Each structure stands twice: as C-alpha cells, then as structure tokens.
Amino acid sequence: MPLFSRRQSSSASAVVTIGTVVSAVNTNTLSAYTFSSVSLGAANAGRVIVVGTSSGGGTNSTVSGLTVGGVSAVEAVELQHQGDAYYRSSLWIAEVPTGTTGDVVVTMSGSAGDCGIIVWPTTGASHCAYATASDASDAGGLTVDLNVEADGAIIAYSACDAGPGWSWTGLTEDIDETVDSGWHHSGASAEFESASTPQTVTCVPPGSSREGLIALSLSPVPPAGTAYRYFRLNITANNGHARGGSIGELEIFAGPCEFPAANMSSNTAPSPLVASASNEESGLSAWEGFNNSNSGWATQTSAGVPQWLQIDLGSGNDIAPTSFSITENSESPSTAAPKDFTLSGSDDGNFSGEETVLKTVTGQTSWSDQEVRTYTI
Predict the structure, then answer these.
(1) Left if phi > 0, otherwise alpha if psi is -120 to 50, otherwise beta: which for 326?
(2) How far apart are CA 344 and CA 337, in angstroms?
(3) Cα dist. 136→112, 178, 180 in Å?
(4) Integer Cα distance of 336 and 328 in angstroms
(5) Which of 62, 80, 151, 307 has CB 3.0 to 4.6 Å from 244, enough for a Cys bridge?
(6) How far apart are CA 260 and CA 321, in angstroms?
(7) Facing residues of 117 across strands?
(8) What is the tens place of the pLDDT at every residue in 64-82?
(9) pTM of the model
C-alpha cells in the first residue's frame, strides 16, 4: 500500500459498497503463503481491499507482511487468540485500483501450521479503518462494539479450532469454512446507511477453544477538497517559554486517515517524507514531531518565536485535509506549547505567499502533559 493516498471523491461523500467476498486456504506448514489469482472484483480507482487472515499451529509467529496484487497492505487490527499464542488473526487494508485478480501473499515471522484468508473488495471507502475492535474471551460467544459512520461498513473475521458453523448477529455472514482439520474461520460484513455509535457485533463460534473475533469499520471517502503536498505549522506565540517552538506530535487527517501514515525515523526517512523546521534542538529534530511519540520536535531553549514545523508528503501524495491535531511535548514544559498558530498548505513548499492558510488558532493556553487537541479545517 502506498504511504499516502491523494484519492478524493466528488462533491459529496462516497458510499462504502462491499463486493463479492471470496476466500482461500492452505494446509501446509510454511513461513509464507501465496494465494494465486484471487478474485478482487472489478477494477476501480477507489477500490480498497480488506483481507482477514489467521493461522493455527506451527510456531509462535505473527503476520509480518501482506500484499494484494503486489501492493503492500497495512495491518488494522491483530489478535492473539485466548489461551494459545500460536493462534492469531489479523485484518489488513490495501488500496488496489487495478486488476480483477491478484496474488495475496501472507508472510509470517516464523512457520505456521496452516493459513486461511477472506477477501472483501470495497469501493467508496477511506483507505484506513475508522474503528477497530477485538474479543478473545473464550466464553462460547464473542462480542465487539464499533462506531460506524453513515454510508460506512463493518467487516469482521473470526476463527477457532472447531467448525464450521458460526452464528452472527449484527452482520451478514459471508464465509464459513474449514482452513485445516484443526482450524476454521468465518467472516461477516454489512453496509450502514445511518451512523451507529456503537454497533454491536456478536458471533458464536462452533467451539469455545482458541476462538477470536476482530472487526473494523470503514468510513466513506470525504467530500473533495483542495489537496496539498506540503503542510507548515507556523507558531507565532507560545505560552511564555523562551523556547519558541515545541510539538510532541503533529498529525494531519483526511477524513479518518492520518498523515504521515508512516512514523518517521529521520528528517528524510522513510522516503518520500521530508520533515523540516525553522530551528531544532539537538535530539528534538523536526522528524520527531512525526514519529508517533509524545517526545517530539523543539527549538533551542532561547530561540523565541515565530517558529515553524513542516512536512513534505512527497510527489504525487497530495491530500485534502479535514482536521489536524497537536500533542503537547513531554520533553518541554507546558509553557513551551503553542498558543497562537496557523496551519498552511502549499503545492511547492516555498511558503513565500503562494500558500493557503487552512486554519488560524489563537488563545491555546493551559496545556497539560501530553495533551492532544484537534482542530477542524
């Protein structure tokens, strides 16, 4: 899966539609499973593929990677089944706009005794999960609650060591089959015209040993907006500290999807991301404001304001933002947190007058340690 998506809808939000659901199994003990020429439904520029997978037996291994038609998927939720680390399930998401069939490759961290997959092709969905949930209570029935937006969908996957014979409530069963003699799986899904907060999903597996349930909801692609490659947070006042700029984490959202979608490990990694700032303290570099850590970017202790923090998503990775969030930096006192600031977008990254101010925020005082504040654009 690409790190980013510039896909936008038309003037209104899309509707998530689930296509024909298919499955495949392999009973061999392997460290990588290739399911060849799996049906992916009709090619579509907005097609998002969800894959549920599980394995039983073998060694204590997890799925370390999954590709659909050569496109890397991102793991949305993973579960170790009750009572046995050798039995796990996970749901993965990939944007796969081309091809009516494709190989699904499941790569394990070690060897597994078998592997099963269930594949849900969707259109109109954002390329990340809106909500996820799991249950491995091993009590003869499994239940999760998920929020789902209007025109969204829920997809769920369950496995255990007995079956087939699942019973689902809240969703419609798609697949119910044997993976191997000691491992079985089932999948269910539904589209939702109206929002539900939350929607309860229950399944009763045919056995009560090593059972597990994982689920995710998908939101419709948000209405189209102007997309930008570069984003700059410009801080014009903080809460009184001589250190001008300090951010634990800056996250930009397009609908439910967060950008950057990958955690940075330097100012230029992973490619094509590039982080920069007007000033950096040693050990608190620009990229650390984009690495999913509350210990982020900060300027030198007497740098003063104004200061800025910037992210370049890379060529072809423009997004139309709908909101952004700021996390207070645990490495700095709260008086260094931003008080007045703007978020701007640019096509060329010059920020010399061509940029668009997306949001102006003032009067942000009394930050608590590692507090997160979100702002709608």
Answers:
(1) beta
(2) 19
(3) 20, 19, 20
(4) 9
(5) 307
(6) 12
(7) 24, 53
(8) 999 999 999 999 999 998 7
(9) 0.82
